UniProtKB/TrEMBL annotation:
Residues 350-372 are annotated as: Disordered. GO terms for biological process: sperm axoneme assembly. Pfam families: IQ (PF00612). InterPro entries: IQ_motif_EF-hand-BS (IPR000048), IQCG (IPR042618). This is Dynein regulatory complex protein 9. It is found in: Cytoplasm, Cytoskeleton, Flagellum axoneme. PROSITE patterns: IQ. The lineage of its organism: Eukaryota, Metazoa, Chordata, Craniata, Vertebrata. Belongs to the DRC9 family. Keywords: Cell projection, Cilium, Cytoplasm, Cytoskeleton, Flagellum.
Amino acid sequence: MSVDISGAQLVRVCTVLQDCADKLAVLGNIMPDTYHGRPEADSVVGADISGVISQHREAEQSLKTVRQIHAEGGAITEAVQELHKSHKELDRTMETNPLSPDNLAKVQRDRQFLAEVIINVLAEVKEKGTIESLLLAVEEEKKKKAHLLDIIIREEEGRRRTKALQRQLQDIRKEKTLELQRREEMTAHLKDQLQEMKVKTSLERKYVKNSTELLVYQGQKLNTHQEKLMEDDIKLLQNKMEMERRAHMEMEIFLKENLSRLGEKLEYWMERYEKDMEDKQQELNTLKNAKYSNLAQLQDLAKKYRESEQVVIENRIEKENLRKMLEKQQMERLAATKIQSWWRGTMVRRGLGQYKKGKKGKDGKKGKKKKK
């Protein structure tokens, strides 16, 4: 958006802007760093700043008058509002403590910024008759303020997080303190147990030492006694070995004598064996001959037995056939008798043949008499 200024309005705007630039230059000259720390600094600076503020207010009133003359100059209105805001901030800063280093630095920055903006706008108005640089400066300042506000918000968020983390840290410290206290108590308890274990271990060591010494003494006595017993056993075994050696010699002599006697007996029994073998061989030959003769008789008897057995079997078969034939004839006779009885009964029941019924009347009576 561009606003063209011409004629008397251009002269008025240039005059107002030039007046503002001069007053800002004067403000920069009346606030040197040498005033800081001097006794008369408050009165001198206060009077000068009050004069500058009043002059700025007059310049602002003049800009408002120009705005009322040209109602279509919306950009000038926004510029005047921004200047008014900056003047209010300047007033608030000056009223707090103008001689503090932070306030002095901020006032210098704001003054330099306003001076540069006004000088640029004045040059643009003189050359082109527009206030584009003022609008650009206002937009840039808005962006800076938005960025600063974002930084402030993030800083506040960081502070809140820091406080939350501090609270968590305090809770963790409390927990760690309690844990440390519990561990210290546990350490003291373990130290007590360690001391008890040391005392107990010392007593056990003494007991084990005494027990070991006693066991060693008992072992030595037992070993001495066992050595004596083993020496007695050695002597006894030596006596037994001597007796065994003598017994062995006597046994050897006895066995040699017995061997000679057994040799003689062996010769006797060998001779008797040969003689008995000859006798038994003769008996065996006799038995073989008897066996052969008995075998021939046995074969004859077996042949006769087989023939007799065949005759007996044939006789049994004939008797069995005869018995079966007699049984068959008996069964046939019984069957014929039963058939005859059945046939007679049938003839009687049905009146067939000689059992036929007679006529009624006389013939019937005669028939009855005949039956009788």
